[in-house]
Amino acid sequence: MSETKNLIKCEDSVILFQSINKKYILYPNESNNIFNILHKDIIGKEFNTKYKSIFLLKPNPASFIETVKRQTQILFEADISLIIFMLHIKPGFSVLETGSGSGVLTTFLSKTVGKNGTVHTFERNAERFNALKTKFQVQNLFNVKIRNCDIHTEENIPDNLDAIFLDIPDPQLIVGKCFELLKQYGKICVFVPSCDQVIKVKNELKQCFYDIKMFENLKRMYGRSKSNIHSIIPLKDQYSHTGFLIFAEKK
User: Fold this and answer.
1) Which EC number(s) does the record attach to this protein (predicted)?
2) Does 55 share its domain with 117?
3) Residue of 15, 103, 31 whose CA lies nearest to 67
4) How far apart are CA 155 and CA 148, in angstroms?
5) Residue 79: what pLDDT?
6) Could you give the 3-state DSSP secondary structure of residue 243?
7) Total structural domains in the chain?
8) Helix, strand, coil shares, percent, the chain, to 5
9) Distances from the Cα of 182 to the Cαs of 96, 151, 185, in angstroms?
10) Are 131 and 100 in contact (CB under 8 A)?
């Protein structure tokens, strides 16, 4: 019996890969000006083959970290892994994320909670909201419910949540609000970029949460030295510090 070929369909996103530093994601009905490739031109082509000297690869959740346009600060693999681990997120969970930002964390949360879970994500920037709404539809993230709103002022928010992730200005101002939205023993994670914000958030968390922990993840990639092929050195021009992650559990 012959194997069924894994062909690119009109609804598929595709990774265009030329090298480790030159790869892009191509969504349906889009074009890539760098490689001069239209999505419609590769429909019917086989994944993991070459087209115009470019490899056509099938995306996975990590692909969205590697190819995302950095309009906002994004979380990397170590951050996302720690968030999912520390919040104990599992299939069937109901999770609130605000703000949505690049949508990278949203993608991983969606895959983790599965078809029986829900990811509520709030994005107050209208332009990013519209772009993300389309992207989530393209990615078939049907368990993601995105809204264009600000949690600071929004009143119609789902409650009885298993976990909350905050990446917004002045998160310390809504710690009490988040306490009310979480179910008993629900968990919260707050992402902040600076030490003074860490202090403000921790002071508020102490009022109604316990088991407060803070982490900083540093990403450092290595590669072969150009001057000495037998040496491995840290790569230049790489992202390292993203921010501080503060975790706590509802009393």
Assistant:
1) 2.1.1.220
2) no
3) 15
4) 13
5) 92
6) strand
7) 2
8) 25, 30, 40
9) 10, 14, 8
10) no
Query: What's the burial of 28, exposed, middle or buried (CB within 10 Å: 0-12/13-18/19+)?
Result: middle
Residue at 120 is within a domain? yes
Distance (Å, whole) CA 197 – CA 212: 15
Sign of CA dihedral 225, 23, 8, 45: negative
Q: Is 97 annotated as a binding residue?
A: no
Same-domain check for residues 142 and 236: yes
In a domain, 69, yes or no: no
Token pair recorded at residue 20:
């480790």
Distance CA(192)–CA(172), nearest Å, equals: 10
Q: Please give the residue range of the domain that contains residue 17.
A: 7-64
DSSP string of 29-61? T-EETTTTEEHHHHTTPBTTEEETTEEEE---H
Q: Identify whether residues 48 and 115 lie together within a single domain.
A: no
Is 227 flagged in the annotation as binding?
Answer: no
Q: Which long-range contacts (CB under 8 A, 24 or more apart) does 155-159 make?
A: 157/96, 157/120, 157/181, 158/94, 158/96, 158/118, 158/120
Nearest to 144 by CA among 117, 104, 178, 183: 117
Query: What pLDDT was estimated at residue 3?
Result: 53
Q: Is 104 annotated as a binding residue?
A: yes
Q: Is 211 annotated in some ligand binding site?
A: no
Q: Is 240 annotated as a binding residue?
A: no
- Tell me the mean pLDDT per 10 residues along the chain, length 251: 72 87 83 88 93 90 68 77 97 97 92 97 95 87 96 95 97 97 97 94 96 89 79 73 92 84
Residues 6 or more apart whose Cβ sits within 8 Å of residue 137? none
